[in-house]
Amino acid sequence: MSIQRPGAVPLNVGVLGGGALGLAVAYRLGQAGARVTVLEKDAEVGGLASSFEVGGAHLEKFYHHLFRSDTTITHLIQELGLGDKLVWLKPTTANLIKGKIYKMDPVRMLTHPILPLADRLRFFLGMAYLKLDPNYQRFEGQTAEEWIKRWMGQRVYEIVWRPLLESKFGEHYQKIAMPWLWSRVYCRSLALGYLRGGFYQLYTRLYERVCALGGDVQTSQTVERIEAMADGRVRVLVNGQSREFDRVICTLPTRLFMKLAVGLPEDYRRRYDWGDYHGAHCVVLSLKRPLTDVYWLSINDPGFPFLVLVEHANYVPVSDYGGERLVYLGNYLPMSDRRFSMSDQEILDWFLPYLAKINPAFDRSWVKRSWVFQAPFAQPIVTVDYHEHIPPHETPIPGLYLANMFQVYPQDRGQNYSIAMGFRVAEHVLKDPISFKVKVGQV
Ligand SMILES: Cc1cc2nc3c(=O)[nH]c(=O)nc-3n(C[C@H](O)[C@H](O)[C@H](O)COP(=O)(O)OP(=O)(O)OC[C@H]3O[C@@H](n4cnc5c(N)ncnc54)[C@H](O)[C@@H]3O)c2cc1C
Asked: For helices 415-431 and 71-79, what crossing angle results, to 10°?
């Protein structure tokens, strides 16, 4: 589909945010002939999936992998000529329970002494049911806690699920929607996909393609205000300067969009300016020695200052990073948590002694280098009523569309879903008859 009509100038589209979603929408619109400008606050593109340099390579600031069900991003990786770098590996995942590491795939769970046999069977059958049932609507209206306690039992809930829910959602863990948990099981695969050389390459390639199609990707551009213009266009205030577009697609989080957009009706705000979210906090360590033999270790023991340990070196060969053994210590937290305002040194002083509880041989001298990353708006809190408060892509301001990862449901947000949404919204904008009103009038 093309939006260029004989004699008409291309539609001038502003895309706010240069993460996976913004770049995906800009790429498809550019392919259809629109003149696209991406405005990104940070100095580089990629958003939550952006990277930093280490060992002559690029690593994501926050741990990232794909599932087999992530088909849109997989196809895009092929389309952009990066298919030979995508590998599917089966790294070990495990839970730390009462100071011991338990490998945690459903079959292994059947033999775990941590639960009585009857509970292990209930866990296994519950997982099998969720894995086989494609209809998440049947779980609508139920919390994950209710469903798990009823079908897998109280002990399975306390030992396996409650720590996972608490680590993602903190104090909200009892209100989480069962469809969200269904998606965590249904969409998951044992094989995890990684782009050798980093997802950085995907976003760099998208950036280059958008530019090659005549688009413009501008970084260090903070959107401060969005408003309707009398002639049907949309004005965006960026770094104090006014920019005008025929159409604008905002990929910023809904709560931020509500702050920036002027003139939204009160009933719209009441319904959609809603919900909580957590920020992400991640320490990355380069270690001299292996800490564990697992990739993903969920911390089910109380008192730890981090909730997951992701030993990237047990997933992707250290040779990809000039020999650096990289480990993440991750958290999702309310933005008011003190970890977001502590210095890197304070964080290390607090976190590092806990590594000896995982591997008693650990010593601080193992740490060669460290980094601390944080991001607000990293994890929506998907409560039972969440789906009723997801705004549509069309907003009350004509020509202004909202598309962001907070509209992903019931799946957990992920690069795949942002990219798929970006493609869908580009198609919608191209089909939307009002897309032509301004241009047709001008010809
Ligand atoms: C800890 C963690 C682990 C994750 N693990 C995985 C994983 O394993 N696999 C996976 O697929 N996904 C994972 N994700 C999720 C994935 O990173 C996101 O779903 C995806 O990157 C979202 O892309 P997006 O473009 O929708 O949003 P974002 O990446 O948030 O993009 C929004 C962009 O808008 C920009 N912006 C914000 N405010 C302004 C402003 N005022 N003006 C201009 N620009 C602005 C931001 O800088 C950002 O670049 C993880 C995320 C986190 C935090």
From this structure: 80
- Determine if the pTM surpasses 0.90: yes
From 39, 44, 45, 64, mutation site for ligand 1 pocket: most ligand atoms within 8 A of C-beta? 64
The residues with which 39 forms a beta bridge, in sequence order, are 16, 218
Cβ of 22 closer than 6 Å to ligand 1, yes or no, is yes
* Tens of pLDDT, residues 310-349: 999 999 999 999 999 999 999 999 999 999 999 999 999 9
Of 131, 159, 186, the position where a domain reaches its end is 186
d(CA 246, CA 96): 53
Domain contains 288: yes
Domain assignment of residue 354, given as a range: 192-196+277-380
**Number of the ligand 1 atom closest to the C-alpha atom of 421:** 26
Measured by CA distance, the residue closest to atom 4 of ligand 1 is: 64
**Of 213, 187, 239, residue with least CA distance to 23:** 213
Measured in Å, residue 62 CA sits from the centre of ligand 1 at 10
